[in-house]
Write a structure and sequence with these properties.
This protein has 64 residues and is an all-alpha fold. The protein is built from two helices and no strands. The longest helix has 27 residues.
Length: 64
C-alpha cells in the first residue's frame, strides 16, 4: 500500500522516555545547594544521557 506503519508501542516508549527525561531535568534543578550536589549532578547527567541515547535509538528504529 506504500504507507508507513507507525507502531503504537514505539510511540508509547518514546512518550515514556520523554517523560523520564523531563523528570531528570526537574531533579537537576532541585538538587541545587545540596551537600553532594556535584555527585548527584553527575549521576543525573549520566541517566539523562542514557535516556537521550534510548530516544535516539528508538527514533532510528522507527525511521527504518
Amino acid at each position: 500500500f506504500n504507507k508507513r506503519i507507525i507502531s503504537k508501542m514505539d510511540q508509547k516508549a518514546l512518550g515514556e522516555l520523554a517523560r523520564l527525561g523531563g523528570l531528570q531535568k526537574h531533579l537537576l534543578k532541585q538538587i541545587k545547594g545540596l551537600p553532594d550536589e556535584e555527585g548527584l549532578r553527575k549521576g543525573l547527567n549520566s541517566t539523562l544521557s542514557a535516556v537521550l541515547n534510548a530516544v535516539s535509538r528508538l527514533n532510528a528504529a522507527v525511521g527504518k
